[in-house]
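Model: You mentioned two targets. I'll fold them one after the other.
Researcher: Yes, keep them separate.
Model: Target one:
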Amino acid sequence: MPYQSLTLPDFAAKFATVDSCLEAIVQRRWPDGWKCRHCGGVRYHRLRTRRVLQCATRSCRRQTSITAGTIFAQAKLALPKVFLAIYLMTDKQGVSAMALRKHLGCHYDTAHRLLMLLRGAMADRDQAYALQGVVQVDEAYVGGHGDGRHRRGRARDTKRVIAVAVEQSASDVSGFVHLEALPAADSESLHGMVLEKIKPGARLLTDEWQGYNGIGDKGYDHQPTISPGGHAASLQWPLVHRAISNCTRWLLGTHRNFCLRYLPEYLAEFCWRTNRRNRSKQDHDRNTREATLPDRLLTIACRQRPRPRTAAGKAA
């Protein structure tokens, strides 16, 4: 079967009922088949009136919730609407909470909460990946307001600093990307990002900003180069500047007045989608169930436990 992503009408028709959604969740939560945790039985009945699987062994009859411990249990929406939100979120431009509210006919807070749950799952999933080989590293500034005056160093009014690292697969081809919001562009923050997300032994290509000083003593081949500034800098490190440009355009185009409070979650969504932009077709022959981005997001929504929430009711 050739690789082909479902169109929006086809996807909506495939998951139009609660039963079809529950069946898809069961297949993804237990890809090797369900097994009772109490008696080890493998046969079950799915109760039509509740979201549970009941062991078919007469002496057991224990029940297992289909959605407990998943994002679907915390989303205050009907399952077909949650599935539709997953499809819309995996589009190239993603979807804002305001737009999702209109598509699903729900309250803004409900749409925002669902998107934050999915972004948290994306961030947790990408924690397992680390960049390697030749990696371009730089910083950028997003959001906030500036007065237009020139400032020396990394001072940028109320803007937030983000670190950007991109694998260089070829001279003009990007591999994995990682964008992370930092408290400052100092050595402590930059070194922490590099140590956490880039494997030792990698070759780091950076400018001569003092925040990178000493990173070569921590197991990396650090090659700093004087930045020419302006447009010439984007030609010298094209991959990181391309990632920065794509991210800022996405934030301003899809989310417009986005809140800097949730910048880490926005960056996690951008990285998750970008890192899988070309993998779907390559992985289709190996695993048809994970062929498309909606398939992948459905799977992590089923298997990734939602992040704990703070007392204020916001995702931690």
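Model: Target two:
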Amino acid sequence: MFGNDRGQRSAATATTSLPSRRPVARSARLCAALLASCCVLAVVIARPSASFGSTTPRCSTSDLILEFVRQLGAAGTTGWDLALRNGGSATCHLQGYPGVALLDGSARLIRVSVDRSSAVKGKNVVLQPWQRAYFSLTFHTGGTQSACTPRYFSAYGLQVIPPDSTQRLLYYHGHFDVCSPSFGHPSVYPVRSTLNL
């Protein structure tokens, strides 16, 4: 009887010890899989944003929101910082110069060209949903007290065509005075990822 008892006990011990080993093996495999996933995720997160530009689509104008950010000025020059916000649900990219034109009081184009400034090199800007790409417009400030009086004209807003697009966005600012082209054309800067140049 004792022999059978011992046999039954050792069999019971064997059957209970086997399942306890299986979770350990499963846990080891699970840890290894999680570690591998974390390494892959870390590589993706660490990849610079410029490399994403080749895999993300260009931002569609229909998803972009044109925003006025701030106005700066010094020595007869006015600078506007504006932004193109990604209002879509997918990540996209912008690179290069927006096409900018001045508008009169009836929202018609004023036939004064806006030059591209070469002071800043354009870079690829990757925009996740609701992120902004910034660009700047500068012009010589006109008006009755300006150095270019009486050679200035009044404008009321902007037409902006995002880089590599043909559709326009409109911004209405209200009355502002710009010196005539004989004092220098307005200038636009390429899109960038930060507000300050």
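Researcher: Noted. Anything on target two?
Model: The CA atoms of residues 123 and 152 lie 34 Å apart.
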